[in-house]
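Much of the work behind modern protein science is quiet bookkeeping, done one molecule at a time. The protein below has been through that process, and both of its lines are reproduced in full.


***
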Amino acid sequence: MGRSLGRPEGVLINGKNARGDGTDEPLFTMKPGKTYRFRVCNVGLKNPLNFRIQGHTMKLVEMEGSHVVQNTYESLNVHLGQCFSALVTADKEPKDYWMVADTRFTKTMLTGLGLIRYTNGNGPANPELPLPPQGLAWSLNQARSFRWNLTASAARPNPQGSYHYGAINITRTIKLVNSASKVDGKLRYAVNGVSHIDTETPLKYAEYFGVADKVFKYDIIRDDPSPEAEAKITLAPNVVNQTYRDFVEIIFENHGKSIQSWHLDGYAFFPVAIEFGRWAPEKRRNYNLLDAISRHTVQVYPGSWAAIMLTFDNAGMWNLRSAQPERAYLGQQLYLSVENVARSLRDEYMLLDTTPLCGVVKGLPKPPPYGP
């Protein structure tokens, strides 16, 4: 439709929002002296959130599948698409307590409430809610405090820290700048001046059958966009050709007034820096090349940039998009084509014979099978 979704009407915790009138049932109960793991995810449509539990601290232990240094926090910001796990100990006065989730960086703050009850509790929750921290600088500083636990093993024989991403040479730098404008009177969002549109033929189908040139063009955006790229938006399938197994640095620059959150399918990456201002090569000296957390989302504050690093070692056609559904739907996304040049089953499975086909590949003969 080319219109914004507008402001959210509320914040829900597990699909509910407590009324606070004394009739609410608890979402969770805790036994005194026990420690509980709370996993918190922001699956909203629009806003980052600040999460906290009245009267309790949270020991952060995991973020998006990675073990982290176990620091303790009174509240935690969770941006769109992000998840974390925190340990909470029931060591306070036995009664009810509020879980609070507030929207961040919005003119009007929305609040979601959920009740936690001690099993032997004998009193209502304090109606005075803990206030959220204020300011972008606070949020940025908290994000910088998150660190990879280099000695934890996770689901691997070696510790997380045995992968020294900071010692790998960068083979390519891609800078991505988000923008917004109207095209033919309709709102569109773009990356480096291109607003992605879906094609009738799925992009991977076209590539797999060797007819990509009939569906899209590779690399219609530059790795280092000119300032003019933001001024005009072009509608087109946005596909970036990426060499298999290259180690790549991606810079996200946000020149807008609202916070951005980016997600990459098929990969985890290392967010090595988030800073205010514009990125420049000399900013690399501020990178965290030791213990950045391996994750699949990163936030970019207004007037700021973020840098991530990763090895493109997973062949396929992978979507890099805004975690805000309206922005992704209206064009703030692109695809990274990591082609299986060797046509090896070691790197990528073949299309199943039972897979339904459509678009220009319908009726085409199957390509030769992959080798070992």
Summary: The mean pLDDT is 95. The first helix runs from residue 136 to 145. The helical segments are 136-145, 203-208, 325-329.
